[in-house]
Design goal:
The protein is of the alpha/beta class and about 375 residues long. The chain has helices at about 20-45, 55-65, 75-95, 155-160, 180-185, 275-280, 285, 300-310, 335-340, 340-345, and strands at about 100-105, 110-115, 120-125, 130-135, 140-145, 165, 190, 220, 225-240, 245-250, 260, 290-295, 310-315, 360-365. It has one domain (about 30-365): 4-Layer Sandwich (Metallo-beta-lactamase, Chain A). The strands form 3 sheets. Strands 7-6-3-2-1-14 form a 6-stranded mixed sheet. Strands 8-9-10-11-12-13 form a 6-stranded mixed sheet, with helices on one face. The longest helix is centred in the N-terminal third of the chain and has 24 residues, at about 20-45.
């Protein structure tokens, strides 16, 4: 697999990072292409699993290195790598038949698609950021456009058309995308989100706002009423910038499997703020959880996982390219600086399967 250099109309190299000389900038384009080719080759040979093989461990850290070039979202090799992986996922979802268990695709950021024999669930689908933040030496921030990074609308439409329902955790643009939500509502498919999501948009009234109540099972018809899901919508928050309502959903499929997705749930400041742990610590006492899809930067990720007590943990939200470089949480974790408990989770009894854009994992529940 080849990822080409940045070339203009007449073959001249296109300047990506304005802080660099032309030769240095062109070198980073060539290096990104070379390293991402190695990443792609390794990930194709060594599939996601737990425990994580050394080859994948190294490939994901190599990916970290490429994506932590500040201007990575505008590197042509990065864009091509991302697009190919998302297009590959779209093709797999279109053709995948699941007779037992569930196949789970990880898409961009904290986006997942879960398919069982009877239903296909979507969480926080996002085509990719259209801009990223650059932090200057005095802490000043500038936003740089990257219009070539998001996948085409056609790719997202292909994915959305395969799904029966979309769950949006909260209103932030790296989780809630109006064009994706509209694709669902225009086809009569439910979109579940807090009331603050896409407020002011014409489609806001078409979004379903389920009761945010800990441990309470609610019913949700999908597939035109032919199938019914059972859903718990936990009253989560992202406690930053005065707090943002964040649905933490637990979805039970007709097969009896359950899938939790926590959006950007965070208790900040921590450990001072404890309110949400009144329900997080007790999920396991009320419901059995098969798969927990969690953001990788929760401040006590291990405690959150223990509260849900899942059979499988799938981290998400690594390398959000809209963030400044230091805040694109890497696969190596940066746990000491970020004060997160990812290492404790990885060393625990819980199977943790780490994936990147476009990869899938088949979950087969043990006999209950």
């Amino acid at each position: 697999m080849c990822f080409g250099a940045a070339l203009g109309e007449e073959g001249a190299s296109v300047q990506v990072d304005p802080r660099l000389g032309a030769d240095d900038d062109a070198f980073l384009n060539r290096q990104a292409a070379a390293l991402l080719a190695d990443v792609a080759e390794t990930l194709a040979k060594v599939k996601p699993c737990a425990p994580e093989p050394r080859e994948r461990y190294l490939a994901l850290r190599l990916l970290d290195a490429v994506l932590h070039d500040v201007y990575a979202p505008n590197r042509p090799a990065v864009q091509e790598f991302f697009h190919r992986r998302m297009e590959q996922a779209a093709a797999e979802i279109e053709n995948a038949r699941v007779d037992e268990g569930a196949t789970i695709w990880k898409l961009y950021n904290h986006g997942f698609v879960v398919r069982t024999h009877s239903v296909t669930l979507a969480f926080d689908l996002n085509p990719g950021t259209r801009g990223f933040r650059v932090t200057g030496p005095k802490g000043e921030e500038a936003r740089v456009p990257c219009p070539g990074f998001p996948v085409p609308d056609e790719t997202m439409a292909r994915i959305a058309d395969q799904c029966d329902v979309l769950f949006i955790s909260h209103a932030h643009g790296d989780h809630a995308v109006e064009s994706v939500a509209r694709r669902f509502t225009e086809r009569g498919k439910p979109v579940i989100a807090p009331d603050t999501v896409l407020a002011g948009s014409p489609i806001h009234k078409k979004i379903t706002h389920m009761k945010r109540e800990a441990h309470t099972l609610q019913t949700l018809p999908v597939q035109g009423g032919k199938t019914e899901l059972r859903v718990v919508v936990y009253p989560g928050q992202q406690y930053q910038d005065k707090g943002t309502p964040n649905n933490v959903v637990l979805v039970f499929t007709p097969e009896g499997m359950s899938f939790a997705h926590n959006g950007d749930q965070i208790n900040d400041p921590y450990p001072e703020y404890q309110e949400d742990y009144a329900w997080i610590d007790k999920v396991r006492e009320h419901h059995k959880v098969d798969v927990y899809m969690t953001n990788c930067w929760g401040n006590d990720l291990f405690r959150d996982v223990r509260g849900f007590d899942p059979k499988l943990v799938l981290p998400g939200h690594e390398n959000e390219m809209g963030h400044p470089m230091w805040d694109r949480v890497p696969y190596w974790g940066d746990s000491e600086y970020l004060h997160i408990t990812y290492p404790q989770l990885k060393a625990s009894k819980y199977p943790v399967v780490v994936m990147t854009w476009g990869e899938s994992y088949h979950y087969q529940p043990a006999s209950r």
